[in-house]
Design brief:
about 40% helix, 5-stranded mixed beta sheet, alpha+beta, 3-stranded antiparallel beta sheet, about 375 residues, globular
Length: about 375
């Protein structure tokens, strides 16, 4: 292992080294804090546990067998050097340590809320099988930069699950933007906290509202980008007059037939949109777009691994690392220092690994299937 030393000071850990000392590592670990941090940064960037384990073992000069094996049925098994348990354990133990070093402990003033379902294929299931749901919240820095403030995997998306998620941080946001649904209902139940006089402003995502209106149009109109109604929809939520123009246009077209669904959608949202226009701040936020972009990134990064992510604690730790990467927090040197600080406070001992394993038949991220009703004859 190469360690750069200048004046007997390790440039990686900024610690004076005596002649007999080497790179700091957790007690009883075969790898250094620097190597652990490198693995976590790779995982945060989307690398698999297996590929990361192989690279770290090679860099540390601790490679295992690299020959591909087969099981009793002749199916190929990954080479020992690519066994991902090593990195999976580090993610479980140190992922939350890294996250706690950067993440807020109180809710930002403005918060975006949304969820994303992760599914895997199974024969006979047209939409696949639900693996888990990710609940996420994006806040804004004082410079107006969005960042993931909280993230969690749950077996199913329910109002109680959202309520528990929204109770993980202190305080009450001033502004909450959702696409409606369960997150909005849960936010109304959780906030304001007892003793806090200010009720947060709950707003519906303008992009989702516009999409709902567009999807209610006749199919041929939806796909005709030259139809002027699309321009009216895009501007409708900026002012009362713009909303009224769209409302009148849809009512006018409905007289000729074919716009009944659009009339229903606009009428159902009329009070909501007018109230949001009245309090619309120029600086926003007005949509959940930044959060949806991150959720799309999650789909691309771990979507094909959803079937194998069955443990809630470990999946939450992985999600936090991915969110840390999205927030621009991933830094190998900084993370190694965070790990060393954590170890120093605990006499060099890392938290025990594999303390959150599940019974084989009861994975913590798989909701039990509904039991059929028992009917007495």
């Amino acid at each position: 292992m190469d360690v750069t030393v200048s004046g007997r000071v390790c440039e990686e850990c900024t610690t004076r080294l005596e002649p007999w000392e080497g790179q700091p590592a957790p007690r009883l670990y075969g790898f250094t804090a620097k190597q652990v941090a490198k693995a976590l940064v790779l995982v945060a960037g989307g690398a698999s546990y297996r590929a990361t384990a192989a690279l770290i073992r090679r860099d540390a000069g601790r490679e295992l067998g690299t020959a591909v094996r087969t099981d009793r049925a002749g199916r190929p098994l990954a080479a020992p050097n690519q066994h991902g348990q090593l990195v999976s354990d580090w993610v479980e133990v140190f992922g939350p340590v890294i996250w706690a070093s950067y993440a807020p402990t109180s809710w930002p003033a403005a918060v975006l809320l949304d969820e994303d379902e992760f599914r895997f294929c199974r024969p006979g299931a047209a939409r696949g099988v639900l693996a888990f749901v990710v609940l996420a919240a994006v806040g804004y820095t004082w410079q107006g930069v969005p960042f993931v403030a909280a993230i969690e995997a749950v077996p199913r998306c329910t109002v109680p699950a959202w309520q528990a998620f929204l109770s993980t941080l202190d305080g009450t946001p001033e502004l909450i933007v959702t696409d409606g649904g369960l997150a909005r209902r849960a936010a109304g139940r959780v906030w304001p906290l007892p003793g806090e006089p200010q009720t947060p402003e709950l707003r519906r995502c303008e992009w989702h509202l516009a999409r709902n209106i567009t999807e209610s149009l006749p199919r041929d109109v939806q796909h005709d980008s030259d139809d002027p109604i699309h321009h009216l929809i895009a501007r409708a939520q900026y002012s009362p007059s713009a909303w009224q123009v769209l409302h009148d246009e849809i009512d006018s077209r409905a007289d000729a037939g074919g716009y009944l669904a659009a009339v229903k959608v606009v009428s159902a949202n009329d009070t909501l949109v007018r109230s949001q226009i009245a309090t619309r701040a120029l600086q926003g936020p007005h949509s959940t777009g930044p959060l949806e972009q991150f959720l799309h990134h999650l789909d691309a990064t771990i979507g094909d691994r959803a079937a194998r992510l069955t443990n809630k604690t470990r999946t939450d730790a992985l999600l936090k690392l991915l969110a840390a990467q999205r927030n621009g927090w991933a830094n190998e040197t900084a993370w190694a220092e965070r790990i060393r600080e954590h170890l120093l406070a605990r006499r060099g001992r890392a938290p025990d690994q594999r303390q959150h394993t599940d019974p084989a038949a009861e994975p913590s991220l798989r909701a039990p299937l509904p039991q059929p009703a028992i009917v007495d004859f």
